[in-house]
Amino acid sequence: MFGGSWTVERMERTNPDETGTRGVEEHARPDGAGNRRVPASAVRAMTTFTAADEEKQRGVRRMKLTATGLLLFVALVYVLAKVASHQGAGTWADYVAAAAEAGMVGALADWFAVTALFRHPLGIPIPHTAIIPNKKDQLGISLGEFVGENFLSEDVVRQRLRTVGIGSRLGAWLAEPEHADRVTAELATALRGALRVLRDSDVQAVVGEAITRRADAREIAPGVGKMLEGIVADGGHKRAVDLIVAKAHDWLVLHGDDVMDAVQGGAPGWTPKFVDRKVGERVYKELLRFCVEMRDMPSHPARGALDRFLIDFASDLQSDTDTRARVERWKGEVLARGEVQDLIASAWTAVRAMIVSAAEDERSELRLRVRASLLSLGARMAAEPSMQNKVDRWVEDAAVHVVTTYRKEITSLITDTVASWDAGHTTRKIEAHIGRDLQFIRINGTVVGSLAGLVIYTVSRALGA
């Protein structure tokens, strides 16, 4: 009776599966106020009584029996001491009775206090009893506020992370080759997974739209003109002219007959054949001579004319309105062609295949460079305090941003989870975990009460004497 065991037994007779399931179904749904859904696993954690919980509860029962037995023992001692006192056993019986009486008072007071935490003593709804089942939600709110104020504050987070020294530890860890290999492999796996999840059609559409939109939004003529102006000023175009002239000369040497036949074929029909042949030979020789002179003479007049043309064209691209407008129209026509859009879209497929292949190959240049970069970064972080401080600040700022931005969401997880627990099961489980220690309070109350009663009775007798 004094240990509240009748209530525990009544709860045990309730089907835990039914109660647990009912609690999950009831609290896993959001309430009318729109509170977030609490995961069913969090509810089951407090509505499922495990074998370990059952063992702890048996320990609680044993301690309740011990505390209650001690109370009955001091009550028996009190009765026997009173009987002995009335029968003239002497003053010692009064001292024993006083100690036993105070022990009973202490035991009953502590029994009431311990029982009031979990239920109404003797089933009587005395105010401020059954604290845990009645104040469960308030306790959850207080716990959430406590965590938010004392664990999720900016100062606490920064101080804790600063003492950890993440920069130096991470640097020393990354500086080890086997750790760099591991990180490289994990990054390669993540990269392959991300690329395989993405649908080619979606990425191609995004890439094509981005390139087209950027090209449409920016005029290219001034940039092309400035680039062409720089190339001509540096003489970079001369190598292209040399290549073209050399290739033209080689082609003329190999296809001389074709050139002469083409010239003869374009002659009027009334001219004699030998005249057409002479004209064709003459044209071919002049073309060949022109190519040889341009190839061998850097100061050839045609080269100078080409230089002047390119300089004027570069200037028109930058300043002439009509030229710039024609270039923009040409750009739009080129981008609108299906072949160009297909080329832009297919670029993603080629890039994706190249990246996936490089990520899968342990000896690829990509993975080797990533590994070398990680080793270099680890060595710098391990050796340079400035680098360590920079990494520490990054981590601190990121953590502070998370806890300050999402503090309410984090603490509400505690509050909502506690609110979702079934009061009866929560009380039963908490009692199973801490009830054994609480029973020692009853035992201590009996012992301390007896000693206090003995001291008080002794002092009273001494003062009365």
Automatic annotation (TrEMBL):
InterPro entries: DUF445. This is DUF445 domain-containing protein. One of its GO terms (cellular component) is plasma membrane. It comes from the Bacteria. Residues 9-30 have a biased composition (Basic and acidic residues). Residues 1-37 are annotated as: Disordered.
